[in-house]
Design brief:
Blueprint lengths: L1 E2 L11 E2 L8 H23 L27 H8 E2 L7 E3 L11 E3 L12 H4 L12 E2 L1 H4 L1 H9 L4 H4 L2 H18 L1 H40 L9 E5 L4 H4 L1 E5 L1 H9 L8 H8 L1 H7 L4 E3 L2 E2 L3 H25 L12
Antiparallel strand pairs: 1-9, 2-6, 3-6, 4-5, 7-8, 9-10
Helix pairs in contact: 1-7, 1-8, 7-8, 7-13, 8-13, 10-12
Keywords: Signal
């Protein structure tokens, strides 16, 4: 038995937000949309590189008419182009903002946002309830058409390159270029992206928590340690308690204390080594023990959410420094 940190493998050509959990789906989609709108506002439709294939259609507008002078797509056109599956705002769905979903009234998709050229996080936060098969994925080929062709042409690992956390780094590089060129036009988009990242980061940590708990308990069992060593604590949302509520997290400090008191068979040195490293790996979300060649518990998902939450935090730090006029370091995409 030994500690082994494995890499996350995504589905080819898709970055799944459904793995991210329901609460962050809207915030993460809006982050990409705002970066796209920044690109169009600063570089123009022809000069933009993000979601370059996004072309407005009459079906993207409630009155069935493309406004004169329309530049690029609104939210509906963006979701139609980049989202998987796409969303049809002309359909009737249960009101996603009604807590009583069983008895929620039917509303048109159009009513979900006031201005589809500039939606808010509050308007999209319940996107996971937008119909029976709501938006859950970003299509890298549509979001980063220039990167997708190049990566495939050079024979790189498309799966790893388009992990969702690496897509955030790719997005950050474009945001860096655009905001450095025209901060005046970039600022309103950066401010909304900052809010999206706050929501997404906290939501990812919430989603990560149960996988870390499962992995921790399974590791304790596999090493015949005292499962009662596991200790949890309650955490409340600091972003939107009404949306994220409260969840259970592992109490790393207390669990580590109890683990040190666990008596193991003297021949289980690999287990001793693993337990000594347990606390550190809990904190990093990189828990990945193998027993008999089989990965334990929810370690892969814990790593997935942890990587993405870390990427959100790094991107948010860069965005906030750019907004404050300070020098900033943007996350580097893996090449």
């Amino acid at each position: 038995m030994r500690l082994n940190i494995a890499s996350l493998i995504s589905v080819v050509g898709l970055a799944a937000l459904v793995q991210a959990g329901k609460e962050v789906r809207g915030a993460e989609l809006l982050m990409f949309f705002e970066a796209y709108r920044m690109d169009v506002d600063i570089k123009g439709v022809d000069g933009a590189t993000l979601a370059k294939g996004c072309k407005p259609l009459e079906a993207d507008f409630e009155d069935g008419k493309i406004p004169a002078g329309q530049k690029g797509c609104n939210l509906w056109g963006f979701m139609r182009t980049v989202g998987e599956p796409s969303f049809n705002p002309s359909l009737d769905i249960k009101d996603p903002n009604d807590p009583d979903q069983k008895n929620a009234k039917q509303v048109k998709g159009w009513s979900l946002v006031t201005d589809p050229m500039s939606p808010t996080v509050e308007e999209v936060r319940n996107m996971y309830r937008w119909g029976s098969n709501p938006y859950s994925r970003i299509q890298p080929k549509e979001m980063f058409p220039d990167k997708f062709g190049t990566v495939r042409g050079e024979g790189k690992d498309t799966n790893a390159y388009f992990d969702f956390h690496n897509m955030q780094a790719l997005l950050g590089k474009r945001i860096d270029t655009l905001s450095a060129e025209n901060m005046e036009k970039a600022k309103p988009h950066l401010e909304k992206i900052n809010v999206c990242l706050q929501w997404a980061g906290e939501g990812r940590r919430k989603d990560q928590a149960p996988f870390k708990i499962k992995a921790a308990k399974d590791v304790l069992k596999s090493f015949k340690a005292n499962v009662d060593a596991f200790t949890s604590k309650k955490k409340k949302s600091t972003i939107s308690e009404s949306h994220f509520g409260e969840w259970e997290e592992i109490n790393t400090k207390e669990t580590a204390k109890k683990i040190r008191k666990t008596k193991l068979d003297k021949d289980l040195e690999p287990a001793r080594e693993a337990i000594r490293n347990l606390s550190k790996n809990f904190r990093n979300g990189l828990l990945n023990y193998h027993v008999g060649g089989r990965p334990i518990g929810g370690n892969g998902s814990a790593k997935d959410h942890g990587n993405t939450a870390d990427a959100s935090a790094k991107l948010m730090e860069a965005v906030q420094k750019r907004l404050g006029g300070d020098a900033c370091e943007w996350p580097e995409p893996k090449e």
